């Protein structure tokens, strides 16, 4: 299973390099079901793996002038604040056992996986529909769009802190539709935001977990190789065309997690 896990780690990087997101959507299930980690530890490991991979992936976009740092800060600052508050105050409040129904107990691990699965299904919808037309009126002011982007950044931060999701599936539509960035620049800027969110999220909570650095660094290294491959492929392949297919895969994974955790 670990060999399959290492193989799947390449796909984490490729998805980040090609479509600017989706890495964490793959990372947590890979760590839980292929490497046998509990959901909480997988969340922490995911933050590091996705953060380091996104940092490496953003370099080529930066060299090509495809990163807007001003917008990265507009989106990233509220995200970072939300991550810190979530990992410091919200996560510790979740009890080890939340609910018992007959013989079935919803533990903290199961709860985090179910939240993650719902997030995957929501992300898959966004990827499958691939709405590039602005959901916000063209007549809306830049100020209101920035305010909405700050709001989405806050939501992304909460999700990142809670389940280790980088939130690329929410970041890119916001950058394109609200802040009117070209797709390539949105992907490069998204990678910077994801890297910032994930690494700060990991550093703020790493004292709470016992980290097996050899395993973590080996998975991260393979994911980095994947993102280098994905970044090269993005020059020849339009990531937007791959998003719907990737979305269907994410949908199946989300349904599988819910089915496994509740019924199996």
From TrEMBL:
Keywords: Cell membrane, Membrane, Transmembrane, Transmembrane helix. The keyword Transmembrane helix applies. GO terms for cellular component: plasma membrane. It is a multi-pass membrane protein. It is found in: Cell membrane; Membrane. InterPro entries: TM_pro_TauE-like, TSUP/Inactive_protease-like. Coiled coil: none annotated. Belongs to the 4-toluene sulfonate uptake permease (TSUP) (TC 2.A.102) family. Pfam families: TauE (PF01925). The chain crosses the membrane at residues 12-36, 42-62, 71-94, 106-125, 146-175, 181-202, 214-233, 245-263. This is Probable membrane transporter protein. It comes from the Bacteria.
